[in-house]
Amino acid sequence: MTTISYRTADVDGFNIFYREAGTKGAPKLLLLHGFPTSSHMFRDLIPLLADRFHIVAPDLPGFGRSDLPGRGHSFERIAEAIDRFTEVVGFDRYAVYVFDYGAPTGFRLAVKHPERITAIISQNGNAYEEGLSEGWNPIRAYWQDASPANREALRAFLKPDTTVWQYTHGVADPNAVSPDGYSLDNFYMARPGVEEVQLDLFGDYRSNVALYPTFQRYFRDHKPPFLAVWGRNDPFFLPPGAEAFKRDIPDAVISFFDTGHFALETHAAEIAAAIRDFLAP
């Protein structure tokens, strides 16, 4: 049985909840989740890797059990908080697993501290325009015109049924998806104030797209060991976004799985095996 500890770190007065497993002194692995989930999404992956790695998986600010920030939340603020979090928990040099919102967070850390990054695993974590599907069109409309009407239209992304759809779309057998993940996400999303913070992040996602050239330049200049483990049927981040990493990191390993956005829900064992092979000593 893998022992997982559930802790809270005080990061300059802001509380960040995290899961920790493995042996201190082992190679470090930072797991960064996405929208609308939390570190709970790694519940199946962590036990499959904890014998090899010292693993830390925080809830991003505004998600899960971490503190809820005020209005005007941004990806830059998330990255700053997680950057300080890594220092607080002693992650001075680590591989990073990024998913969805975790990707622009982790890529910001890599650009700022390239010497700290030993490898990158991207699970449906995008950094190329061709990876963005038409599902982003309502959010793009809000980037172009932050009107109350365009903001209101985005509340559909926050509805419980939409969360369930994100988990099950593109999955061969929806009955293989545990209801625990999307039920917990919907519980956290229903907290007072969360919707407005999430709408602010929808608006700020354009800052991530604006940074794509910066991320790509980091990939070209530093060529970190890179593994993409991608749900092929993701309605938001398309397979060309995974394949594009090889343009800047020719030795990148790209693996597709017959599943959707939340690939760990159905393919945790396969993804864990790919990571173990990729990060083999």
Produce a short descriptive summary:
With 281 residues, the protein is α/β, with parallel strands linked by helices. The chain is built from twelve helices and eight strands.
Question: Keywords for this structure?
Answer:
single chain; about 280 residues; alpha/beta; 8-stranded mixed beta sheet; 12 helices; globular
Low-confidence segments, given as residue ranges, are none
**Cα Rg:** 17 Å
Which structural category fits the helices and strands? alpha/beta
Largest sheet properties: 8 strands, mixed
What number is the mean pLDDT? 97
Strand order of the largest sheet: 1-2-4-3-5-6-7-8
Q: What proportion of the residues form beta strands (DSSP E)?
A: 15-25%
Figure out the total of helices: 12
Give the SSE order as H and E letters.
EEEHEHEHEHHHHHHEHHEH
Could you characterize the architecture of this molecule?
With 281 residues, the chain is an alpha/beta fold. Helices cover 41% and strands 18% of the residues. It contains twelve helices and eight strands. The protein has helices spanning 45-49, 75-88, 102-112, 137-144, 148-153, 160-168, 179-189, 194-210, 212-222, 239-243, 245-248, 264-278; strands spanning 4-11, 14-21, 28-32, 54-58, 94-99, 117-123, 226-231, 253-257. The chain has an eight-stranded mixed sheet with strand order 1-2-4-3-5-6-7-8, with helices on both faces. Strand 1 and strand 2 (14-21) form a beta hairpin. Helix 6 packs antiparallel against helix 7 (179-189). The radius of gyration is 17 Å and the shape is globular. The mean pLDDT is 97.
